[in-house]
Design brief:
It is a single chain. With about 220 residues, this protein is mainly alpha-helical. The protein has a domain of about 150 residues. Helix content is about 80%, strand content about 0%. It contains 13 helices and no strands. Helix 1 crosses helix 2. The longest helix has 24 residues. The protein is globular.
Amino acid sequence: MPIAIGYVPIAVAYGALGVASGLTWWHTLLMSLLVFAGASQFMAAGMVAAGAGVVQIIIATFVLNFRHLILSLSLFDRLREISPLRRAALSLGLTDETYAVLIARTQHQEPMPTAGFVVGTMITAYLAWVCGSALGAIFAAVIPADISSGMSVALYAMFIALLMPAARKSAWAALTAAFAMVLCYGFNQFMAPGWSIVCATLLAAFIGPLRLLREAV
């Protein structure tokens, strides 16, 4: 529920931005129904407004969402009790926020989350995102631009809220997060945002094996 509540203002901001970029309200809503990837949808709407072609948008969003390959490998390896076919279906609802909640549950709680629990987590987030997108797209004309743009700040606040509990409990988690942020900032100076996120994630992920090696020694 906290994820769902956090999704609504961000989705409203996306809906208003989509219509302002030249999309119809139902195109804007359809993207939320079929894509369900906030950062990619914001980027796609901006690229539409800039006159980018379909192929450019597809490639850019693919690169930005490439991190989901890493998230999927990490999460679904821990949910081996769920059949591969169900895990493949569940991957359609994976987001950064649902990943954070589910990975925390696999680390600190027993038994492991059931398929029903995973579905419930993802469906709740999905419905909140779609409903918020609909509100933003339909009422875009009456939402002031400064308010809709300010709503996107909630995205960063949500990431911080998801990150802090793990960072407070583990120095290694805090180190990994700090290292990833520094790398992402550095890469962003000469790379596209999508590639900078992917490269920073991959390199920061090596801190985990380093910890295991240190403990083994």
